[in-house]
Amino acid sequence: MEVYRFRQGKLPLLVSMPHPGTYVPPAIEARLTEVAKTVPDTDWHMPRLYDFLAELDVSVLEATHSRYVIDLNRAPDNRALYAGASNTELCPLQTFDMEEIYRDGQRPDDAEVGERLETFWRPYHAKLAEELAAIKARHGFALLWDAHSIRSHVPRFFAGRLPDLNLGTGGGSAAAPGLLDLLTAVAREAEPLGYTHAANGRFKGGYITRCHGAPDNRIHAVQLELTQSTYMDEAPPFGFREDLAQGIRPVLAGLIDTMLAWADVELRDAL
Length: 271
What we know:
By secondary structure, this protein is α/β, with parallel strands linked by helices. It is built from 7 helices and 7 strands; from the N terminus they run ββαααβαββαβαβα. Strands 1-3-2-4-7-5-6 form a 7-stranded mixed beta sheet, with helices on both faces.
């Protein structure tokens, strides 16, 4: 099975979706616990939620394999993403609820992790870097939107309920501060609709945002971690809720429109 799906657009934005995949190769799946076989930590239904991207004519890179095979948003050397906090590994060993992913004695060793890195991780990141370079060559700059979702309550990572819209630029390293200010303003405008937000909070951007965002090189990256309660049922079987999605989609579209408009003024005019 292909490692990713890619659709090229004409506008200077690439949307990365590293965690919507549910496919686990049979040789790996046979070693998983029963709960892990349901891949509960998937970023469910991202392509469907972001279906408006086709009309915007932006590039989209979507992973096909489950994060349990390998986490595309972790560093290749497996270093912790958030120092001092609970972190999941490059090849996760426990679910977000601290349940074992592998049956006894079936965890991958270092050699297998290395094989998965070469087979699944590197092709995704190579395509991501290739497309950002191509966008920059065409437009003089490139934008990256890294699209994620997560359950609204995951005690392992945070106490209480997570804000709905969690914008991150790697603490300011991955995008110009003016861009994040504008995006935060869009999120703030959604408060009367019942959506909460945070900027560079608990989820300030993972490896993709921090690695590929390079403001000094005119590549600006933003991660959005969206609570799944805004568009789906968070309990199995994790059904999509179009009635909920109709509320959050305009907010997502507004964020992306704002990013493109900012670039048109701040970056294109400076060329």
